[in-house]
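Hi,

I'm pasting everything inline rather than attaching a file, because the server keeps stripping attachments. The sequence lines come first, and each chain or strand is labelled.
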Amino acid sequence: MLKQTLLSAAMVLATVPAMAQQTEVVIQYPYGELFNDTHKQIAEAFAKVHPEIKVSFRAAYDSYEDATQRVLREAITKQMPDITFQGLNRLRLLVDRGLAQPLDEFIKADKSLETEGFHAAMFDIGTLGGKVYGLPFAISLPISYYNIDLVRKAGGDPDNLPNTWDEVIALAKKIKALGPDINGMTYVWDITGNWLWQAPVFSQGGSMLTEDEKKVAFDGTEGQFVINALARMVNEGGMPNISQPDARAAFAAGKTGMHFTSTSDLTKTTDMIGGKFVLKTHKWPSVVAGNGRLPAGGNLGVILASDPKKREAAWKVMKFWHGPEGAAIMAKTTGYMPPNKKANEIHLKDFYVQNPNHFTAVSQLDLLTKWYAFPGDNGLKITDVIKDHMNSIVTGKRASEPQKVLVDMSADVQKLLPRK
Amino acid sequence: MADVALAREIDANIAQGARPHVRLRRRRMMSMTAAVLLAPALVLMALLLIGPVLAVLLMSFTDYQLGAPTWSLVGLENYIELYGDRVFWTSLTNTLLYVAIVVPSSIALGLGLALLIESGSTLRAFYRSIFFIPVMATLIAMAISWEYMLHPQFGLINLMLKEIGLPAQAWLSDPVLALPTIAAIGIWQLFGFNMVLFLAGIVSIPSHLYEAAVMDGARSAWSRFWLVTWPMLGPVTVFVAVISAIRSFQVFDTVHVLTKGGPSKATEVLLYSMYSEGFEFFRSGLAAAIAVVFLCFVLLLTIIKARLIEKKVHYS
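And the predicted assembly:
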């Protein structure tokens, strides 16, 4: 094992000097099954415009967790890729470790960015401590999926789908009453990084921590509303305790009336449904007008190369990947949407007219806010603590005392926050 | 160790008839040779075993985080945090529970099968290999097969239950069933190994003991087992128990593939906690502290084994 590792390390070192002519930029991205085709197509388009830069890929990361782990490990052995695509809530860790390179000098120097569809909100997502460290590549937002056939059968109005959790739960009861193997609704509460805990809290205008990041802030009225809603989904809506793939499979099989998850699932779910029933996507329920927000999911590109020449080449790659052409390829090959304005308004106009289900997320773009990452050394442990407490409600174990769960959850998270 | 014995023997042969001062020099040369011969093993042991263990021990007293440029000593803080961490206690209890289920069951199954195979006359080799297959299979791949068999909707096991009119179960997502299910897979993976060890033990029992027992009036199979087989298998049983316990303490693959410690930490076990603290939450210092706790348990088991074997749990 060790011998093999040493041998392959030696081989990697041996090949380095051989490719000095063309500047090489190495890219690594997550979820190969979703993004292999995307990055390959963008790379082909890029090669036509920039023959002086050679883009190569490493095998895709399995998940966002894997992506961060690998970069941290490679940082120790100094074998990081030049550009890495990471989960939007993982940027903070890379910045804290001093691995992500700031992009401000490139952004300031490049006057063509605005005409290429880059905009302030886009930079904002990758900004930490006043500096831009990453550009969002593939964005997802939480939306509602409806099985219109079941909605009709239960006496719901397909043109007047629920807009609040009260209406959702009322409809879930009616759909569930249709048969013993029918689920009223499924809420994918366990998406990585507490995404669907943050989404409903932010949609109420709440936040995870106070402004100074010293105290838990999700224990206020917003959090109470959300934890109650989650318990009601279980108690009144009869939500089953099943895993993410099972919930998707059940919905696609026509056994679930309403499904609440990310837009990134849209292409896959639509394919799985085939023509079995009419699928309609709808906006996220109970978003408070004014200060209600939704966290952006998905991934962003980060430059890790510290060598100035490499960094400059890497920036050219980043600009193309996140520019109108790259963004349009990404949108068409995945279910994600691009944050690039020009891509959405010009390159993808017809696409959205033909695929109205894809437009639901785009219509929510104004609500976009950061996928929050908790501060300090225990940041990732905190997400696990929140997940466990939410799980205690979904399994039904503590579904009768959501307020107590919230109190415990706040106390547990508070203990893990940095004390300084 | 064999090297040393050999060196000594050669030493003794050569020394015969040699003059005293030559003998002394030869002796010194010989011990030098022994040291040189031992060196590779010792260096490797220091590098691959003792070194890492010391590094882990040191790391458990620091606040090191994976990939962090700096670290500082924090004394016992990681251990204090573990002491106050509910997840750690759940994890420890689950591991002990897992060991408590898997060890006796896999020993009983292994012994039972070994006795059955040994008493039968046909297809012995066939049964031996059939039951040994789970041991040879890659556990990760097998865990994925189990995942399909245990699938709540179209899994083989639930389909069979439905066929005979029993309700289907959510084997891996029901907090009450998840750990026993993982333990059942653990037993399935381990009993074949135990069976082979017991088979070896049974074969080495001298047949005259059985003959003597029969002459002394032990007519039934049970009394022969109780009077001869079981006591003679004493050392094998101790060995099997300790090895099974150590292997059960190491449960990780099935948990990682099937449940990720869930639902609600119902299947969280020590090695999985270590993995998630170290490689998911990047709290390497804390992960090292869990590793030290784990090492203590394994060390304890090893000491018990050494003591019991020293006491000679056999009657020969």
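Chain B has two domains: 2-59, 77-310.

If the labels don't parse on your end, tell me and I'll reformat.
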